[in-house]
Amino acid sequence: MPEGRVFPVWRGIGVGAGVWSQGWGRCLQWDPDGPEQGPRIPVFDYPVWVVLCQGGRARLREVCQRGRGAIRLPTDMLSIKLPQLFDIHQVPKVFREDSIISGYRHPRSSALDCVLSSFQLNNETVNIWTHFLPTWYFLWRFCALCSTMNFLTDSYTWPLLVYMLLICVYPFTSCCAHTFSTMSPESRHICYFFDYGALSLYSLGCAISYGYYVMPDCLLNSWLHQHFVPIAIGNTLFCTGLSCYSRFLELQFPQRSKALRTGAFVLPFIFDTVPLFYRILLCCGGSGCSPSDALSSHCYHLLFAFLTCFLFTAHLPERLAPGRFDYIGHSHQLFHVSAVVGTHFQMEGVMADMTSRRAWLLAHGGTPSFLGTIGMLVASLVLNLGIIGIFSTPLLWNSPHGAGQPRTPKCKEQ
Ligand SMILES: [Zn+2]
């Protein structure tokens, strides 16, 4: 406390009976009346009426203002103005979600507002976090593998390297897409183009790892085995192209758009899973299979994959009670969780197969090549980015108001 500042003490009536409270004591200050009084230590025992009669009323008001300011300061420093939320009829059609009534962010949010909105409960918050946190989980698993495996020189680990990279990329891309999708209608489409591209690349990661580690013994070196990864690259191009195109039909033909997008992701999934289905069928038939940790993990993965597909298409539970699950519990959040849990079991299955079948696969299937793994990933990445670029360019060139709804009348709802 600087010199010359004291806490006035209530000693007027009943000396010693009462004092200014500690809270007020921190805020009040007692200034000397003039410079001649200098650093004189003021007398503490001023009665209150003296304070009031010698212009103290104004001074008291002033210190009260300072006190309020001092109290409010930390609150102002901590309070950040969070973006306003809107109901479904207040946002353009392109932003509306089936059976989600409230909790929409502003359709022209700034990038900062988008980032801040991830800390504010709205209808995208859980979508963002259900893919942001798993990104760190998969990164942690990847780092742990880096310390135990030699990804640089051991070519047998390269399919796993590609797979691990892609299971880190797809939830992170999805998290970014959900975060920044409300900057404009154009940005919404482009964000989800990248989301679809990352998902189709993930399907390539599955194909590469399944082709090298999960392929059943009887299909090793077959035509399917030899062409498995190139076909999977074709699937990623088909998947990215069709899913991006489906966004252009969303407003005019929502059912067709949904069917095309679902088909775009189901096809690579079915193709990638052919070796796994075959192995499970062989097991069920009782030939050439012994139950293993890998197979049980793969079965759990398939279970969650079907659940993921069901949640994506059914829009349950929000369809049963529109508005009830706007913030927590709607199908897209459950879809994210189911997809991540499925990916976890898939990762466990792939790693178990990779470890347990190493000697046999190296002896009969040959070693994975750089071009067949990382080269394929790079080629597919470039081609998919090209497709995303083709779909994004017209949106970037169009006017801001019409760009979000290509081939459809301009949306009047604001
Ligand atoms: Zn999503």
From TrEMBL:
Membrane topology listed for this record: Multi-pass membrane protein
Pfam family for this entry, one: HlyIII
Main location: membrane
Keywords associated with the record: Membrane, Metal-binding, Transmembrane, Transmembrane helix, Zinc
InterPro entries: AdipoR/HlyIII-related
Compartments, as annotated in UniProt: Membrane
Any GO MF annotation of the entry: metal ion binding
Positions with a binding annotation for Zn(2+): H178, H332, H336
The keyword NADP is annotated on this UniProt entry: no
Protein name (database record): Progestin and adipoQ receptor family member 6
Organism annotation: Cyclopterus lumpus (Lumpsucker)
